[in-house]
Design brief:
By secondary structure, the protein is mainly α. The chain contains 12 helices and no strands. Helix 7 runs antiparallel to helix 12 and helix 8 packs antiparallel against helix 9.
Length: 284
């Protein structure tokens, strides 16, 4: 019953987000998505469904191609990848067993963090956003490298956590939700944290997917109305991303991703260096 309520609520939230996004884009006369963004959304969300992640590769490509100003990156990421993430959650959240109370608590905490974090992003100086996103990309590159070297925690077999660990998980997801507003992906840190706490890595998937799927449309509605967002790029990411998620989930399912991760590491590190250099120059 809890899962059914979550899925129905998520579908309703996605519908409200979609209507809001289209209305704002129509009011600003930017309903035509950028074709490059459609292709980017398809590629990044395809591999996101298979476990690569979408935020770091998307950020790297947008930076290298100068698709949006640096300060627009967090809002464009959260707005553009919201619907593909919802589709991922709708597909997978019903397939994996996990403590429903842990699931709901972590989702609520992440959403609360994102709701508080979103207004901060649109008011932060550009150099601060550049620094945060650049730092996040270096962390993402490190996680990709650790995954390839099989150095990430394997996790336990538990489907629930004791009281103290439960509190740690919920508090951490509040912080991770706030960081999502700055364009820092939640998937990898959430998976690592829950695995370290003893949760089965498989059971961590509905938690991290559910958290992102709820918080991204909520923060995305705020971001879509802000001035620091490129709605043509965001629409392209969504349009390309949704069918790519379906293709990856139902048709492809698995691929040898090790070589791709090493390629992503190189590109992400390079783009992060550009962002951090820009941030440091702005400080001088």
């Amino acid at each position: 019953m809890v899962v059914v309520i979550l899925l129905v609520s998520l579908a309703a939230l996605a519908l409200v987000f979609l209507v809001t996004l289209i209305a704002v884009a129509h009011a600003r006369n930017v309903l035509r998505p950028r074709s490059e963004a459609v292709a980017l959304g398809a590629v990044t969300n395809f591999f996101d469904t298979l476990g690569i992640g979408s935020f770091a590769p998307t950020t790297a490509w947008m930076k290298l191609r100068a698709m949006v100003p640096d300060s627009f990156i967090p809002a464009t990421l959260n707005t553009g990848h919201a619907l593909p993430t919802v589709v991922q959650a709708l597909i997978f959240i019903n397939l994996v067993r996990v403590d429903p109370f842990l699931l709901i608590a972590c989702i609520a905490a992440a959403v609360a963090g994102a709701v508080l974090g979103a207004p901060l992003v649109v008011r932060m100086p550009v150099r601060f956003v550049q620094g945060m996103v650049g730092f996040a990309m270096l962390i993402a590159a490190l996680l990709y490298a650790l995954a390839n070297l099989d150095l990430l925690p394997m996790g336990g077999t538990a489907l629930s956590l004791g009281k103290s660990l439960f509190v740690v998980a919920v508090a951490a997801h509040f912080v991770l939700g706030a960081l999502m507003a700055f364009g820092i992906g939640l998937y990898a840190p959430s998976l690592i944290l829950l695995s370290l706490l003893g949760l089965s890595p498989t059971a961590a998937f509905p938690v991290m997917m559910g958290a992102c799927a709820f918080l991204m449309p909520l923060s995305g509605m705020r971001f879509a109305r802000s001035e620091r967002v490129d709605l043509r790029v965001a629409l392209g990411l969504a349009i390309g991303g949704v069918p790519a998620v379906l293709l990856a989930a139902y048709v492809v399912k698995t691929l040898p991703l090790s070589a791709l991760r090493w390629g992503v590491v190189l590109v992400v590190v390079y783009a992060a260096t550009l962002l951090l250099r820009a941030a440091l120059r702005a400080v001088r």
